Amino acid sequence: MEHITSSEVAGFGVGTLLLCATIAAPKVDAFISASQRSSLGLCKRCGDLRMIACSRCRGTGLIKANGPFSFNLIDTLYQSEEIKVKSVGCTKCQARGHFSCPDCSNTSTS
Asked: In terms of domain of life, where is this protein from (predicted)?
């Protein structure tokens, strides 16, 4: 990288900032939603829904049979209606897709 211009340096800087913002977005969103729930008097974790989505299956109760990282570009691009993605039930949540909130279940109302 001999003769790098100021425009290229600015481009690298902006690209780096965008990448950092993209990576940090879920954590910032979780922080803001927790503070909003707290200010409204709701449970910080579930928002008084009394259930939390499973982190493994993301609330669906199903996982692809080949695993979460299986990806075949040819099959994805040319997938016909006859080919169905094989799924198995999530073992972490027993295929329910959610758990009861540990914060709300500790303070049960009688």
From this structure: Eukaryota
Q: 63 near 90, Cβ under 8 Å?
A: yes
Same structural domain, 73 and 109: yes
Residue 99: Cβ-neighbour burial (10 angstroms; 0-12, 13-18, 19+): middle
Give me the domain span that covers residue 87.
48-110
- What total number of domains does the chain contain? 2
User: Percent of the chain having pLDDT more than 90?
Assistant: 25
Taking only the tens place, the pLDDT of each residue in 61-99 is: 888 776 555 556 665 566 555 556 678 888 888 888 888
Q: Based on the fold, state whether residues 69 and 29 are members of the same structural domain.
A: no
Helix (H) or strand (E) holding 20: helix 6-39
| Domain identity same for 36 and 52 | no
**Are residues 110 and 70 part of one domain?**
yes
The residue type found at 80 is: S
Q: How much is the pTM?
A: 0.52
H or E, element range at 103: helix 102-106
